[in-house]
Amino acid sequence: MAIAAVSTAAVTPSAYPTSSATRLSPLPPPSKPLSSSVVFSKTLQKPIHVTLAKNPISDIVATYKKKSSVSKNTDNALFSDDDDDDDKPREECGVVGIYGDPEASRLSYLALHALQHRGQEGAGIVAVHDNVLQSVTGVGLVSEVFNQSKLDKLPGDIAIGHVRYSTAGSSMLKNVQPFVAGYRYGSVGVAHNGNLVNYQSLRAELEENGSIFNTTSDTEVVLHLIATSKARPFFMRIVEACEKLQGAYSMVFLTEDKLVAVRDPFGFRPLVMGRRSNGSVVFASETCALDLIEAKYEREVYPGEVLVVDKEGVRSLCLMPHPEPKSCIFEHIYFSLPNSIVFGKSVYESRRAFGEILATESPVDCDVVIAVPDSGVVAALGYAAKAGVPFQQGLIRSHYVGRTFIEPSQKIRDFGVKLKLSPVRAVLEGKRVVVVDDSIVRGTTSSKIVRLLKEVGAKEVHMRIASPPIIGSCYYGVDTPSTEELISNRMSVEEIREFIGSDSLAFLSIDSLRKLLGNDSKNFCYACFSGKYPVEPSGKVKRVGDFLDDGLSGSMESIDGGWVSGNSNKGVDVTKLDLNKEIKLSSA
């Protein structure tokens, strides 16, 4: 185990030790002192945690989402949940942590609002007050889970928060983070962004030794590893636990007197650090959360780093020798907001550059450039500027459509897409249109958009995709379909063009993407474009109809039934999976 203590102000990526552990020593406090109102009480011998009000309707949410239970000939057919119309990879969650601010929970609430795009189906905040960890979690948007009275129940100077995307199910609520657990030395809360690829084996080992799990989330494994560790002090328990984890994790931990931020050695998912004017320290998944609560961005939490914040200040520890970073390139393509700085780069500038490359490498005669909102807008602006063609708002997105909506008994073609995207006839009629989107996953949404544009009179529709073709599932905290469901894994570009009905189709090439990133290109993960995984999924791979997230819903039996065994020795070559063969092997 290689551990080093250095000042956060002096840390650079090259400062990480890769061998020979050095003794941990306390560091000086931050350059600006923490708020004088911060009170540090003696730790209780056995602190408790309190869980407050939760959304009581969570257990029936799935009732209206199960198409299989709805008859087309009844009034219940009015309820529709067409996931094909939201055909994008989905980021699993966003996290925030705040230390040393008397309004920590309210600031966490605002930060979660800024991170709402990273997860819309569950939210929670844990705060510390009088050495007690108090929690409020619920199903829904941040504004639906929290109100004034609930935030009043979360006083304290330290807080962590979490927003998540989840598959529907009766166990959804219990998987909403942050999680809080009590063990023999106190209580700890955790919020996690990512996915552990060795979750199943770790859980089996812990259960073999007597651990009892309350959720189906891989994050709970981390709490069990901390509780069973014999290392002292507390942050060494985190280090010891993380050394057993494989996969993606950007996590914030909370105790009675400490805030700890951890990022996996590959740095798959983002995590940044900032500071408010009163000296309080803030961690968040994206810088847009720092902007809203007026925290100044300082730096990323480096891959393989543990940052411990307490009354002594901020200490930086090296979790373990780490390889080349493999940050998720999809953060710049789709997940993050354009106004965020992610992995040290402007998301806006990246997307604009993607569009410019498309215009250079895949030009086409056209009259107007439009975007599939919202994630395609910046790339479309880049394409239009480079091509010298006007950009116009040819598709208007409704931001008020929920995941479940009422559909008339008389079937409307492409109903889900029409609810969310409305074409502007004055912009499109009689025009040769270039449509810029960030990605194509199954191809179902793209085909409906092309049809929608032609129905209002577009003369030609040319699709331009600001990312390479997606041929592999993600196992590092992104909800993507199985390999067999990814259209680019089954069809050539020309076959996809025919399937979606466009007049032409072009993707950003992976070579152009790497060239744009320059010397940093080796520090990104391209597994979804290449099928080559930095950390091989061990033992389990996705199959048709499955979803993988940081909190799998349903019983363990349903989880096991929804996976296909992989070859843990040789890894998974996503381009050569034989689904029928894999299913037979799974049931053998």
Automatic annotation (TrEMBL):
<keyword id="KW-0328">Glycosyltransferase</keyword>
<comment type="similarity">
    <text>In the C-terminal section; belongs to the purine/pyrimidine phosphoribosyltransferase family.</text>
</comment>
<keyword id="KW-0408">Iron</keyword>
<protein>
    <recommendedName>
        <fullName>amidophosphoribosyltransferase</fullName>
        <ecNumber>2.4.2.14</ecNumber>
    </recommendedName>
</protein>
<dbReference type="InterPro" id="IPR005854">
    <property type="entry name" value="PurF"/>
</dbReference>
<comment type="pathway">
    <text>Purine metabolism; IMP biosynthesis via de novo pathway; N(1)-(5-phospho-D-ribosyl)glycinamide from 5-phospho-alpha-D-ribose 1-diphosphate: step 1/2.</text>
</comment>
<dbReference type="InterPro" id="IPR035584">
    <property type="entry name" value="PurF_N"/>
</dbReference>
<dbReference type="Pfam" id="PF13537">
    <property type="entry name" value="GATase_7"/>
</dbReference>
<dbReference type="InterPro" id="IPR029055">
    <property type="entry name" value="Ntn_hydrolases_N"/>
</dbReference>
<keyword id="KW-0808">Transferase</keyword>
<feature type="domain" description="Glutamine amidotransferase type-2">
    <location>
        <begin position="93"/>
        <end position="312"/>
    </location>
</feature>
<keyword id="KW-0315">Glutamine amidotransferase</keyword>
<dbReference type="InterPro" id="IPR029057">
    <property type="entry name" value="PRTase-like"/>
</dbReference>
<dbReference type="Pfam" id="PF00156">
    <property type="entry name" value="Pribosyltran"/>
</dbReference>
<dbReference type="InterPro" id="IPR017932">
    <property type="entry name" value="GATase_2_dom"/>
</dbReference>
<keyword id="KW-0479">Metal-binding</keyword>
<dbReference type="InterPro" id="IPR000836">
    <property type="entry name" value="PRTase_dom"/>
</dbReference>
<keyword id="KW-0411">Iron-sulfur</keyword>
<keyword id="KW-0658">Purine biosynthesis</keyword>
